[in-house]
Amino acid sequence: MISVFGSANMDLVAYTGRAPALGETVTGHAFRTIPGGKGANQAVAAARAGARTAFIGAVGDDALGPQIRAALADAGVDVSRLRTVPGPSGIAHIVVEDSGGNSIIVIPGANGTVTGPAEDDVAVIRRSAALLLQLELPMDAVVAAARAARASGRERPAVVLTPAPARELPAELLQAVDLIVPNEHEAAAITGETDPEKALAALLATVPEAVVTLGGEGALYGSRGSAPVHVPAFKVEATDTTAAGDTFAGALAVARTEGMPPERALRFASAAAALSVQREGASTSMPTRSEIDAFLTV
Ligand code: ADP
């Protein structure tokens, strides 16, 4: 089983010819509500890629909470540890211009109330083969979850961190991480190195394994004491790269918990991400296990 401790949002997306300036009103041409949040996205990616997946987090007691919960459950994610708390759910308010450019306001809502895994959550984490973390919850909560996984004894879950949005990482978090999966911008923000190979080497000074994703250029994998490996991206027509990284991280965790060696696991994750960028949306774009397997055998 994989557990994901993270954020769940509803993306409220307005599509318009151009975004309004301050004080201005424009008429847009479409509006969609799309379940999102990095935590929820990674949970959906892992569940669709074939793992039993539990999501630990919070939604509000507003009208959006049940919709976010239902989207996770529909994707096959176990939502028994998803709490409903008083107040609004997390939202991302997104304006997409016809040019493709966007501007986003994230309001954490219920996500901001999470202080750490509760006792029952810790029991779920300790039964898991991997714990997926991102940085859209308060940092203290993320650190508490990582430490809970670390304290699980010999059969402890692998702690996989997507350090997004990029923030300063406390040493006690890094000490508890087994695999870190930043994109190249996050890797540069964390390490100060804009060259991905140098950033990878810097990450490996504190974490045993790292993957730096490079968008359409693929991904770089490294572990302490071995040469870095570049796994190219699959050549596909990308229409929407939203949540490519979350799809990649969720699928990578599935592959690793199934015991695939690193390069094969990266190919599996790259295939899942390549399928997702060919479709619109975040969680709605994530491929199922049979789609990933079929893609890899072509
Ligand atoms: P993020 O979404 O976090 O910014 P990236 O853009 O680095 O992450 O993408 C993550 C992974 O998704 C890449 O390593 C690659 O495997 C896949 N991917 C992203 N963009 C493309 C693309 N245009 N074509 C094929 N695969 C892609």
UniProtKB/TrEMBL annotation:
Signal peptide: none
Major location category of this protein: cytoplasm
Pathway listed: Carbohydrate metabolism; D-ribose degradation; D-ribose 5-phosphate from beta-D-ribopyranose: step 2/2
Enzyme class, broadest EC rank: transferase
Catalytic activities: D-ribose + ATP = D-ribose 5-phosphate + ADP + H(+)
Chain residues that bind K(+): 240, 242, 276, 279, 281, 285
Keywords of the record: ATP-binding, Carbohydrate metabolism, Cytoplasm, Kinase, Magnesium, Metal-binding, Nucleotide-binding, Potassium, Transferase
PROSITE patterns to which the protein is assigned, alphabetical: PFKB_KINASES_2
Activity modulation comment: Activated by a monovalent cation that binds near, but not in, the active site. The most likely occupant of the site in vivo is potassium. Ion binding induces a conformational change that may alter substrate affinity.
GO biological process: D-ribose catabolic process
Catalytic residues (positions): 246 (proton acceptor)
Cellular-component GO terms for this entry: cytosol
Record text on cofactor binding: Requires a divalent cation, most likely magnesium in vivo, as an electrophilic catalyst to aid phosphoryl group transfer. It is the chelate of the metal and the nucleotide that is the actual substrate.
Subcellular localization(s) per the UniProt record: Cytoplasm
Residues the entry annotates as binding substrate: 9-11, 37-41, 136, 246
Source domain of life: Bacteria
One protein family per Pfam: PfkB
Record-listed ATP binding positions: 183, 213-218, 245-246
Cross-referenced HAMAP family: Ribokinase
Subunit structure as annotated in this protein's UniProt entry: Homodimer.
Similarity annotation: Belongs to the carbohydrate kinase pfkB family. Belongs to the carbohydrate kinase PfkB family. Ribokinase subfamily.
Protein name in UniProt: Ribokinase
